[in-house]
Amino acid sequence: MGFGRSGSNRGVIGVHLPGYETSGCPGVHAADLDYGGLLERVGSSRSRNCDRRVASRRLGGPAVRISTRVAVAAALLACAVGAIVSPMTADAAPSGTAVTDFGACLASQRSGDLLLMIDESSSLQTSDPGAARVTSAEYLVGQLAAFENSSGVDLNVAVAGFADTYSVDLEWTALDEGTLPAINGSLDGFRTRNQGIDTDYWLALDGARETLAARPAGIDGAGSCQAVAWFSDGKIDFTSRGDTRKPYAPETSLDSQAGVDQVVRTATESICRPAGVADQLRSSGVVLFGIGLAAGTASPADFDVMRSIATGEPSGSATCGAISSPSPGDFYLAQNIDELLFAFDAFSTPGQSPLAREAGVCAQIVCEEGKHRFVLDRSIGSVAVLGSADSEGLIPTLVSPLGDQVPLPDTGQEGRTGTGIGGVDINYRWQSPRTISIEMTNASAPQWQGLWSLVFVDLAGSSAARSKSNIHISGNLFPAWKGQHTVAIHSGESSVPVDLAIVDSARSEIDPESLLGKASLSVVLIGQDGQQRTVAADIPKDRIDQPVIVDLTEVPAGQATLRLTLDVTTADATTVSGQTEPGTPLAPQSVDIPLAIAPPIGYPTLPSKIDFGTVEGSGQFGVDVPVTGPGCVWLPEAPPASVLASPDGAGSITVASSTADAAACVQVEEGQTGSVPMSLSVPNSVNGVVNGSVSLMVAPAGELDRALPVEVPFTAALEKPLDKGNFILALVVALLLGPGIPLLLLYGGKWFTARIPARTLKAQQFPVTVSGATVLRDGRPFALTDRDLIEVVRGLDSPARQLDIGGLVLRTRVGRSPVGAGFVVVESGPRAGASGSSPSTFGNRPHARLPLAVHNTWFVLHDPAGPSDAATVVLLVGDDAGPTVRSGLVDDMRSRLPGALSEVRARATPASGSPSAPASGGPADSFDPFGGSPQGSSPIFGGGSPGAAPSDPFDPFRGGSNR
Question: Is the pLDDT at 938 greater than 70, yes or no?
Answer without folding.
Answer: no
